[in-house]
Design brief:
Layout (H helix, E strand, L loop, with lengths): L2 H16 L23 E16 L3 E3 L5 E3 L2 E14 L6 H14 L3 E7 L8 H5 L17 E12 L3 E12 L6 E11 L10 H11 L1 E4 L16 H13 L5 E6 L6 H23 L6 E5 L12 H7 L1 E6 L1
Parallel strand pairs: 10-11
Antiparallel strand pairs: 1-4, 2-3, 4-8, 5-6, 6-7, 7-8, 9-12, 10-12
Length: 324
Protein backbone atom coordinates (compact mmCIF):
# COMPACT_ATOMS: atom_id res chain seq x y z
CA UNK A 1 0.00 0.00 0.00
CA UNK A 2 1.24 3.51 -0.83
CA UNK A 3 2.99 5.17 2.15
CA UNK A 4 0.89 8.33 1.85
CA UNK A 5 -2.31 6.31 1.95
CA UNK A 6 -1.13 4.50 5.07
CA UNK A 7 -0.32 7.82 6.76
CA UNK A 8 -3.73 9.20 5.81
CA UNK A 9 -5.48 6.17 7.32
CA UNK A 10 -3.51 6.57 10.54
CA UNK A 11 -4.36 10.27 10.75
CA UNK A 12 -8.06 9.54 10.24
CA UNK A 13 -8.01 6.86 12.89
CA UNK A 14 -6.33 9.15 15.40
CA UNK A 15 -8.93 11.82 14.67
CA UNK A 16 -11.70 9.28 15.31
CA UNK A 17 -9.94 8.04 18.43
CA UNK A 18 -9.78 11.57 19.81
CA UNK A 19 -13.56 11.44 20.10
CA UNK A 20 -13.16 8.84 22.82
CA UNK A 21 -10.27 10.56 24.56
CA UNK A 22 -12.44 13.32 25.99
CA UNK A 23 -14.16 11.18 28.59
CA UNK A 24 -17.29 10.37 26.59
CA UNK A 25 -18.65 6.84 26.38
CA UNK A 26 -20.06 5.49 23.14
CA UNK A 27 -23.86 6.11 23.04
CA UNK A 28 -26.23 3.57 24.62
CA UNK A 29 -23.45 1.88 26.61
CA UNK A 30 -22.91 1.37 30.32
CA UNK A 31 -20.80 -0.51 32.84
CA UNK A 32 -22.04 -3.92 33.85
CA UNK A 33 -23.79 -3.68 37.25
CA UNK A 34 -21.61 -6.48 38.61
CA UNK A 35 -18.19 -4.82 38.14
CA UNK A 36 -17.50 -1.19 37.31
CA UNK A 37 -14.72 0.20 35.09
CA UNK A 38 -11.19 1.14 36.03
CA UNK A 39 -11.30 4.84 36.93
CA UNK A 40 -10.60 7.14 33.98
CA UNK A 41 -11.48 4.57 31.29
CA UNK A 42 -13.92 5.31 28.47
CA UNK A 43 -16.25 2.85 26.74
CA UNK A 44 -15.19 2.59 23.09
CA UNK A 45 -17.20 -0.52 22.18
CA UNK A 46 -20.34 -2.12 23.56
CA UNK A 47 -22.38 -5.17 22.60
CA UNK A 48 -25.08 -7.23 24.34
CA UNK A 49 -26.21 -10.61 23.00
CA UNK A 50 -29.30 -11.93 24.77
CA UNK A 51 -28.39 -15.56 24.05
CA UNK A 52 -25.33 -16.90 22.30
CA UNK A 53 -22.38 -19.25 22.63
CA UNK A 54 -19.06 -18.14 24.10
CA UNK A 55 -15.74 -19.99 24.04
CA UNK A 56 -13.84 -19.10 27.22
CA UNK A 57 -10.09 -19.87 27.03
CA UNK A 58 -8.74 -21.49 30.21
CA UNK A 59 -5.35 -22.39 28.79
CA UNK A 60 -2.71 -20.86 26.48
CA UNK A 61 -3.12 -20.49 22.73
CA UNK A 62 -1.76 -23.35 20.62
CA UNK A 63 -2.03 -24.54 17.03
CA UNK A 64 -4.37 -27.36 16.22
CA UNK A 65 -3.76 -30.04 13.58
CA UNK A 66 -4.97 -27.69 10.83
CA UNK A 67 -2.75 -24.81 11.90
CA UNK A 68 -5.53 -22.77 13.51
CA UNK A 69 -4.88 -20.83 16.70
CA UNK A 70 -7.03 -22.42 19.45
CA UNK A 71 -7.04 -22.52 23.27
CA UNK A 72 -5.33 -25.59 24.74
CA UNK A 73 -8.24 -25.76 27.20
CA UNK A 74 -11.61 -24.06 26.99
CA UNK A 75 -15.14 -23.85 28.35
CA UNK A 76 -18.00 -23.60 25.87
CA UNK A 77 -20.70 -21.47 27.50
CA UNK A 78 -24.19 -20.34 26.59
CA UNK A 79 -26.22 -17.45 27.90
CA UNK A 80 -26.49 -13.66 27.89
CA UNK A 81 -23.20 -12.06 26.82
CA UNK A 82 -22.21 -8.47 27.62
CA UNK A 83 -19.04 -7.22 25.87
CA UNK A 84 -17.47 -3.92 26.91
CA UNK A 85 -14.32 -2.42 25.38
CA UNK A 86 -12.62 0.26 27.47
CA UNK A 87 -9.80 2.61 26.39
CA UNK A 88 -7.38 4.30 28.74
CA UNK A 89 -6.58 5.83 31.05
CA UNK A 90 -3.31 7.20 29.76
CA UNK A 91 -0.22 6.53 31.83
CA UNK A 92 -1.51 3.36 33.53
CA UNK A 93 0.12 -0.02 33.04
CA UNK A 94 -1.73 -3.19 32.17
CA UNK A 95 -0.45 -4.74 35.41
CA UNK A 96 -2.02 -1.99 37.51
CA UNK A 97 -5.38 -2.28 35.74
CA UNK A 98 -5.26 -6.09 35.84
CA UNK A 99 -4.61 -6.23 39.58
CA UNK A 100 -7.47 -3.85 40.29
CA UNK A 101 -9.92 -5.95 38.28
CA UNK A 102 -8.64 -9.17 39.81
CA UNK A 103 -9.02 -7.79 43.31
CA UNK A 104 -12.57 -6.59 42.56
CA UNK A 105 -13.57 -9.96 41.09
CA UNK A 106 -12.14 -11.93 44.00
CA UNK A 107 -13.91 -9.55 46.39
CA UNK A 108 -17.17 -10.36 44.58
CA UNK A 109 -16.59 -14.10 45.21
CA UNK A 110 -15.40 -15.00 41.71
CA UNK A 111 -13.19 -18.09 41.44
CA UNK A 112 -10.17 -17.68 39.15
CA UNK A 113 -10.06 -20.37 36.46
CA UNK A 114 -6.97 -19.23 34.52
CA UNK A 115 -4.60 -16.27 34.34
CA UNK A 116 -1.66 -15.52 32.07
CA UNK A 117 0.49 -12.69 30.78
CA UNK A 118 2.58 -12.13 27.67
CA UNK A 119 4.37 -15.32 26.53
CA UNK A 120 2.54 -17.46 29.10
CA UNK A 121 -0.64 -16.88 27.10
CA UNK A 122 0.82 -18.37 23.94
CA UNK A 123 1.48 -16.74 20.58
CA UNK A 124 -1.40 -14.67 19.14
CA UNK A 125 -3.57 -15.28 22.18
CA UNK A 126 -5.64 -12.19 21.32
CA UNK A 127 -6.90 -13.98 18.20
CA UNK A 128 -8.88 -16.29 20.49
CA UNK A 129 -10.88 -13.32 21.79
CA UNK A 130 -10.83 -10.66 19.09
CA UNK A 131 -10.30 -12.03 15.61
CA UNK A 132 -13.65 -13.42 14.51
CA UNK A 133 -15.76 -11.60 17.11
CA UNK A 134 -14.64 -7.99 17.10
CA UNK A 135 -16.85 -5.26 18.55
CA UNK A 136 -17.64 -2.86 15.73
CA UNK A 137 -20.10 -0.50 17.36
CA UNK A 138 -17.76 2.50 16.98
CA UNK A 139 -15.28 3.75 14.38
CA UNK A 140 -12.31 2.65 16.47
CA UNK A 141 -13.34 -0.42 18.45
CA UNK A 142 -12.56 -2.95 15.72
CA UNK A 143 -8.87 -1.99 15.73
CA UNK A 144 -8.41 -2.21 19.49
CA UNK A 145 -6.03 -5.18 19.39
CA UNK A 146 -4.31 -4.76 16.02
CA UNK A 147 -0.95 -4.83 17.80
CA UNK A 148 -1.40 -5.59 21.51
CA UNK A 149 1.59 -5.39 23.86
CA UNK A 150 2.05 -6.24 27.54
CA UNK A 151 -1.03 -8.47 27.52
CA UNK A 152 -2.75 -9.87 30.60
CA UNK A 153 -5.75 -12.19 30.80
CA UNK A 154 -7.96 -13.91 33.32
CA UNK A 155 -11.02 -16.14 33.27
CA UNK A 156 -13.22 -16.40 36.36
CA UNK A 157 -16.48 -17.97 37.51
CA UNK A 158 -19.12 -17.24 40.12
CA UNK A 159 -21.96 -19.59 41.07
CA UNK A 160 -25.08 -18.54 42.96
CA UNK A 161 -28.38 -20.28 43.64
CA UNK A 162 -29.98 -19.14 40.38
CA UNK A 163 -27.12 -18.32 38.00
CA UNK A 164 -23.61 -19.09 36.86
CA UNK A 165 -21.53 -16.11 35.70
CA UNK A 166 -18.22 -16.31 33.85
CA UNK A 167 -15.89 -13.43 33.13
CA UNK A 168 -13.24 -12.98 30.46
CA UNK A 169 -10.83 -10.07 31.01
CA UNK A 170 -8.16 -9.16 28.45
CA UNK A 171 -5.92 -6.09 28.83
CA UNK A 172 -3.18 -4.82 26.51
CA UNK A 173 -1.46 -1.68 25.32
CA UNK A 174 -2.71 -0.53 21.92
CA UNK A 175 0.81 -0.15 20.52
CA UNK A 176 -0.10 0.98 17.01
CA UNK A 177 -2.84 3.59 17.40
CA UNK A 178 -3.37 5.31 20.76
CA UNK A 179 -0.53 3.77 22.84
CA UNK A 180 -3.04 3.54 25.70
CA UNK A 181 -4.37 0.53 27.64
CA UNK A 182 -7.32 -1.29 26.10
CA UNK A 183 -9.53 -3.55 28.24
CA UNK A 184 -11.96 -6.13 26.87
CA UNK A 185 -14.37 -7.14 29.63
CA UNK A 186 -16.88 -9.87 28.76
CA UNK A 187 -19.55 -11.26 31.09
CA UNK A 188 -21.41 -14.49 30.29
CA UNK A 189 -24.54 -15.06 32.41
CA UNK A 190 -26.09 -18.53 32.37
CA UNK A 191 -28.96 -19.97 34.34
CA UNK A 192 -27.86 -22.50 36.90
CA UNK A 193 -28.51 -26.12 36.00
CA UNK A 194 -31.32 -27.70 38.02
CA UNK A 195 -29.26 -30.48 39.53
CA UNK A 196 -31.13 -33.45 40.90
CA UNK A 197 -34.16 -32.74 38.71
CA UNK A 198 -35.46 -35.44 36.36
CA UNK A 199 -35.92 -34.09 32.83
CA UNK A 200 -37.93 -37.12 31.64
CA UNK A 201 -39.22 -39.72 34.08
CA UNK A 202 -39.65 -43.44 33.38
CA UNK A 203 -43.36 -43.17 32.58
CA UNK A 204 -42.81 -40.34 30.11
CA UNK A 205 -40.02 -42.33 28.44
CA UNK A 206 -42.33 -45.31 28.10
CA UNK A 207 -45.06 -43.19 26.53
CA UNK A 208 -42.63 -41.69 24.01
CA UNK A 209 -41.26 -45.09 23.01
CA UNK A 210 -44.77 -46.54 22.74
CA UNK A 211 -45.96 -43.66 20.54
CA UNK A 212 -42.97 -43.12 18.23
CA UNK A 213 -40.44 -45.87 18.96
CA UNK A 214 -37.94 -43.45 20.49
CA UNK A 215 -37.54 -40.68 23.05
CA UNK A 216 -35.00 -37.85 23.37
CA UNK A 217 -33.27 -37.47 26.73
CA UNK A 218 -31.85 -34.11 27.84
CA UNK A 219 -30.97 -35.01 31.42
CA UNK A 220 -27.64 -36.67 30.64
CA UNK A 221 -24.65 -34.35 30.88
CA UNK A 222 -21.03 -34.72 29.82
CA UNK A 223 -17.88 -32.70 30.22
CA UNK A 224 -17.19 -30.56 27.14
CA UNK A 225 -15.79 -32.60 24.24
CA UNK A 226 -15.67 -35.61 26.53
CA UNK A 227 -17.53 -38.85 27.17
CA UNK A 228 -17.20 -38.45 30.93
CA UNK A 229 -20.62 -38.41 32.56
CA UNK A 230 -21.37 -35.63 35.01
CA UNK A 231 -22.88 -36.39 38.41
CA UNK A 232 -25.97 -34.37 37.43
CA UNK A 233 -26.87 -37.28 35.10
CA UNK A 234 -27.50 -39.72 37.95
CA UNK A 235 -31.22 -39.04 38.40
CA UNK A 236 -31.91 -39.52 34.68
CA UNK A 237 -29.86 -42.72 34.54
CA UNK A 238 -31.95 -44.01 37.44
CA UNK A 239 -35.15 -43.26 35.51
CA UNK A 240 -33.83 -45.23 32.52
CA UNK A 241 -33.11 -48.11 34.89
CA UNK A 242 -36.67 -47.88 36.25
CA UNK A 243 -38.00 -47.97 32.67
CA UNK A 244 -36.04 -51.14 31.91
CA UNK A 245 -36.89 -52.82 35.22
CA UNK A 246 -40.60 -52.26 34.71
CA UNK A 247 -40.44 -53.68 31.15
CA UNK A 248 -38.21 -56.76 31.18
CA UNK A 249 -38.74 -57.50 27.48
CA UNK A 250 -37.67 -54.04 26.32
CA UNK A 251 -34.30 -53.68 24.56
CA UNK A 252 -32.92 -50.30 23.53
CA UNK A 253 -30.50 -48.63 21.19
CA UNK A 254 -28.75 -45.87 23.16
CA UNK A 255 -27.95 -43.25 20.50
CA UNK A 256 -25.61 -40.30 21.06
CA UNK A 257 -26.20 -37.04 19.15
CA UNK A 258 -23.97 -33.94 18.91
CA UNK A 259 -24.19 -30.47 17.39
CA UNK A 260 -22.22 -29.57 14.26
CA UNK A 261 -19.30 -27.87 16.00
CA UNK A 262 -16.08 -29.69 15.08
CA UNK A 263 -15.36 -32.15 12.30
CA UNK A 264 -17.52 -35.03 11.10
CA UNK A 265 -15.17 -37.79 12.30
CA UNK A 266 -14.71 -36.14 15.70
CA UNK A 267 -18.46 -35.92 16.31
CA UNK A 268 -19.16 -39.44 15.11
CA UNK A 269 -16.55 -40.77 17.51
CA UNK A 270 -17.66 -38.51 20.39
CA UNK A 271 -21.34 -39.44 20.03
CA UNK A 272 -20.50 -43.15 20.03
CA UNK A 273 -18.25 -42.86 23.09
CA UNK A 274 -20.97 -41.00 24.94
CA UNK A 275 -23.50 -43.71 24.12
CA UNK A 276 -21.03 -46.33 25.34
CA UNK A 277 -20.58 -44.37 28.58
CA UNK A 278 -24.34 -44.36 29.20
CA UNK A 279 -24.60 -48.11 28.56
CA UNK A 280 -21.62 -48.79 30.82
CA UNK A 281 -23.14 -46.74 33.65
CA UNK A 282 -26.46 -48.60 33.38
CA UNK A 283 -24.71 -51.98 33.35
CA UNK A 284 -22.05 -51.32 36.01
CA UNK A 285 -24.04 -49.18 38.43
CA UNK A 286 -27.60 -50.43 38.01
CA UNK A 287 -27.05 -54.03 36.98
CA UNK A 288 -28.87 -53.83 33.63
CA UNK A 289 -28.26 -56.83 31.38
CA UNK A 290 -25.82 -55.59 28.68
CA UNK A 291 -27.66 -57.65 26.04
CA UNK A 292 -30.61 -55.26 26.38
CA UNK A 293 -28.57 -52.16 25.43
CA UNK A 294 -26.75 -51.35 22.20
CA UNK A 295 -24.73 -48.11 21.96
CA UNK A 296 -24.58 -46.11 18.72
CA UNK A 297 -23.44 -42.67 17.68
CA UNK A 298 -24.71 -40.57 14.77
CA UNK A 299 -22.85 -37.30 15.38
CA UNK A 300 -24.83 -34.39 13.93
CA UNK A 301 -26.62 -36.43 11.24
CA UNK A 302 -30.05 -36.14 12.84
CA UNK A 303 -30.61 -32.59 14.13
CA UNK A 304 -33.88 -31.51 15.70
CA UNK A 305 -33.07 -27.79 15.42
CA UNK A 306 -30.80 -25.45 13.47
CA UNK A 307 -27.09 -25.71 14.26
CA UNK A 308 -26.71 -22.05 13.28
CA UNK A 309 -27.77 -20.86 16.75
CA UNK A 310 -26.52 -21.70 20.23
CA UNK A 311 -30.05 -22.55 21.34
CA UNK A 312 -30.49 -24.95 18.42
CA UNK A 313 -27.14 -26.61 19.07
CA UNK A 314 -28.11 -27.21 22.70
CA UNK A 315 -31.24 -29.07 21.52
CA UNK A 316 -29.21 -31.20 19.14
CA UNK A 317 -26.86 -32.38 21.91
CA UNK A 318 -28.86 -35.26 23.34
CA UNK A 319 -29.15 -38.99 23.92
CA UNK A 320 -32.03 -40.89 22.39
CA UNK A 321 -33.49 -44.24 23.44
CA UNK A 322 -34.74 -46.21 20.45
CA UNK A 323 -36.77 -49.41 20.72
CA UNK A 324 -34.62 -52.28 19.45
Amino acid sequence: MNRNIVLAIMVLFLLFASENSQGQDTPDSSDHPMITRYAGSVIDGYEVLEFDEFVLPVGPAIRDGEGNRVPSEKKVLEGKITRILYRGPEGRTTLEIFRNYRSALEGADFQLLYTCSNRECGRLFHWLLYKEKKITTTKTSGQAFDMPKDIRYLAAKKTTADAVTHVSLFIAIDAIWTKKPVTLFEIIESKAMDTGMVTVNADAMAEGIQATGHVAIYGIYFDINSAKLKQESDSTLEEIYRLLKARPSLSLLVVGHTDSQGGYNHNMDLSHRRAVAVVKALVDRFGVNPKRLTPAGVGYLSPVASNDTAEGRSKNRRVELVKH
